[in-house]
Amino acid sequence: MSTVFIALQANEDTRPIIEAIVADNPHAVVNQQPAMVKIDAEDSLVVRRETIEELLGREFDLQELQINLISLSGHLDETDDEMKLYWNA
Amino acid sequence: MDMKTSSGKKLGLKEKYRHMTRGLDWETTYQKREDVFPYVAYEGIKIHDWDKWEDPFRLTMDSYWKYQAEKERKLYAIIDAYAQNNGHLNVTDARYLNAIKLFLTGISPLEYMAHRGFTHAGRAFPGSGPRVACLMQALDELRHAQTQIHSLSNYNKYYNGFHDPAHMLQRVWYLSVPRSFFDDAVTAGPFEFMVAIGFSFEYVLTNLLFVPFVSGAAYNGDMGTMTFGFSAQSDEARHMTLGLEIIKFILEQDPDNVPIVQRWIDKWTWRGYRVLTLVGMMMDYMLPKRIMSWKEAWEVYFEQNGGALFKDLSRYGIRPPKWLDQISFDKDHISHQAWATFYQYGAIADFHTWSPTEDELDWLSSKYPDSFDKYYRPRLDYWREQAEQGNRFYNKTLPQLCQTCQIPMVFTEPGDPTKICYREVDYQGEKFHFCSDGCKEIFENEPEKFKQSWLPANQIYQGNCFPDGTDPTVEGFDPVSKVLEYYNIQAGRDNLDFDGSEDQKNFAKWRGMATSNE
Asked: What global pTM score does this model have?
């Protein structure tokens, strides 16, 4: 088993994003660190636009993530609807 | 947020990316293709279809400007507020600033070199996908150099050692370590540069530099650094993704590429690991409020994350980098060995060093139960006793340097932390010295490159590091003071122990003024 992760700044913009990630990835583990949040997940992790939009109450472009992204690991695949992190092995 | 258009037809991300990163070039007609792209073949890497290159974020220039502009607005709003609010007086204590000096002199100028490297690599590649990716990354790196210098210029108004990073990078002994690392990368071919910086540094190692560092800045009340760090790091996440894409792209193009890439991964993981010794020291000794030890950061960001990565890459026939056994053993040692070196050479450094406090020593003991009390704490205790009696120890003999990484020969034998590791190679009638098997093998693979290393200690002894017009034959000649002059380090202000420094006194005085009506 390999772990992927995504790290985001801890701020008002990312609060609903983190909430959405947790909702869509029940296997994810959230680590609060100084000024940042690191989310680890076995094998893969998905960030879904619709879930974020529901929580935000407005339209959301997944590329807005760029502004508050700190780091990530794994292969990435981004479309209009979701951003996926995964390992093949 | 995007404005809604009335037509209702909007390109999806994938189509938009394809339209804006493909078909932007043309076939050469009146010049030979190999004359237009002269650097793309000599490294032996074979590429059959450049269009297979894909940026997984599918970022195009229009979105790039939009999000980068927003990052800049956030960044400068915070930098202004931090400066207007005398934010520098809110850092945990003034010793912290020395970590930032090391960052400004050792890292920020490398961001600029990375900018140059990516413009060069982008120009060298015949495919328009990687060219677009290199363009964005080149702009990011330039932005990082500038935003770091802007943020840290605020400290330059108040504290010593921030005044001349670009000049120092070219001259100061320990700065030749990061400098030669990047010079090695930008003078390599474009594919090696991408594997060196895009993959090995950005993907495998940059988390160790930026994540604990930025979190550390936040923990130590340094909002300026935290902000530029996060702003840069949001680009780094994109760079890491590209770094992984680079490797997959090259490996999938031709099986002949595998052994070439493997050798670069071995070389650049080791080179990068050596450079990061400075970060290990910073985390374990220079942040008054600690976040995690070097060893812990190494385990999370290298062993766990790198382990998953190399497991994934094994399907291409790539194995984990060489010398991992030694790297794994050394995580208990290198930060302590580095701090001991800088403590001794504190008279010719652009930042202050000090004896750690009792609670800091206890923290180190708890984080390094297998090594600190046995090998390192007694020496620090002894030095502190000596300093308290007025005998602060400064080493005045220049150290021997490793021909490859240029770090003084302070590292120990794999498996034996009581014995300094020495390796040597005879080449063209000369003897060359190395700190490790890794650095020795890198030299043996490229002796014509590394025999030219500009080694600061050797250059000082040859008389090449004095100001113009210096006459070393005059009576009472003091080489150290002339070397400091050449470095533009102000003796007695920028260097020596933190205890008794101008920074220490000013910080205490100004903080006192900020919290009372004296």
From this structure: 0.93
